[in-house]
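Entry 12.
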Amino acid sequence: MELESILRSIYPDKNQIGCLSGVVSDLGHILQNGSKLLKIKKVIPAGSLGRNTILKGHLEVDCVYILEHNDYSFSHNYEEVINTLRKKLPKKVQYQPKKHSIHFNLERPIGIISVDLLPAFEINSEKQMREVRNKNAHYGSTTLIQDKYFANVKKKYPRFTDLVRLLKLWRNSHHIPLTSYMLELIVANSVKDTSQGEEFSFYLEVCFSTIQSFIDGRKIKPVFWDNSKLEINYSKNNLWILDPSYLSENIAEKITEKDKGLIKSEASKGITNIQNEKFDFLMNKST
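Predicted 3D structure (tokens):
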């Protein structure tokens, strides 16, 4: 199967995007207008919907609601957020408050939408993040910094999102223990190291080579970014993927030795398949 045909088969349709975006819009309207106690600037999509790397049929939405004041403890507004939602959403919706978010499901014509609603402050630098009184605030606020980061990457290579989608497809079909965010950061590094004007398939091959070299110890650092204050913490598994929205955090620390072997083996197979123009491996687990 041709690479572009595979890509078209995993693109979300307008109905899916419209429905998921509608959930974000509806929640924004409810939270900004349904309570006199909540002081919310805006509600924005995060995750794969916000970065336009979502796959066809993926019915999950991460929403971040931005609070007006950095000294406002969002952990104390969960009850008011839930009460506000209950006034407007169906009574059967069940809300599950977590440490960093409120989770619930919504029924829509396309299916059951899984929603995670995350509070955040409008923080645009790591310095602000360190200074904020609520130290957990960075969890949602990183979305704003990530938006800026990936906007820079897309300027370098507009098909960044296509590469991420294909790697997600491969990850899902081969059960690769890498999160979507890890893959996005790996692709960003691959884009930086690839000369402009190359074929799309070559960019994909570089992505798999980057995954392989990452397992061998290459540090995945933020690209097109100010790394002057970068601090790399020791990692027991010798793997590093550094978060551009929180430069002291290594998100690859939990990858196990067993995981490393699987990732490297499948990445190596991927390189061979791409070189032989056999792209079906992205969808099918090799035997």
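Annotation: The two ends are 18 Å apart (CA to CA). Residues 232 and 248 are 6 Å apart (CA to CA).
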